[in-house]
Amino acid sequence: MVPESRYWFRAKRYGWGWGLPLTWQGWAVLGLFGVLMVLGNVLLPPTTHPVPFVIYIVALSAALIGVCYLKGEPPKWHWGER
Questions:
Q1: How much is the pLDDT for 5?
Q2: Predicted confidence (pLDDT) per residue in 23-77, tens digit
Q3: What is the pTM of this model?
Q4: Which of 11, 32, 42, 48 shows a CA-CA span of 20 to 30 A to 77?
Q5: Could you give the CA distance from residue 39 to residue 59 in angstroms, rounded to a whole number?
Q6: CA pair distance 29, 9, nearest whole angstrom
Q7: DSSP state of 3
Q8: More confident of the two residues 4 and 8
Q9: How many CB atoms lie within 10 A of CB 16?
Q10: What is the helix (H) or strand (E) element at residue 21, kind and residue range?
Q11: Cα→Cα distances 7→39, 66, 70, Å
């Protein structure tokens, strides 16, 4: 049995932030984010509802960043070292 990582998202190798998910929970969060992005594009088309669409995308992105911050490796600048 493979031991489960306590982090859902790995820190990026170069730069600041997070890369691809490490666990199924991280993939589920990323998948839900993608589904909600498409759903927002369908329900709030940016051509007819630009302000609500931008508010929705900003809130959704902030939620994803919050989950990455809480469940990912601590963010710091990386120069390629691991």
A1: 62
A2: 999 999 999 999 999 999 999 999 999 999 999 999 999 999 999 999 999 888 8
A3: 0.83
A4: 32
A5: 14
A6: 10
A7: P
A8: 8
A9: 10
A10: strand 18-21
A11: 28, 14, 9
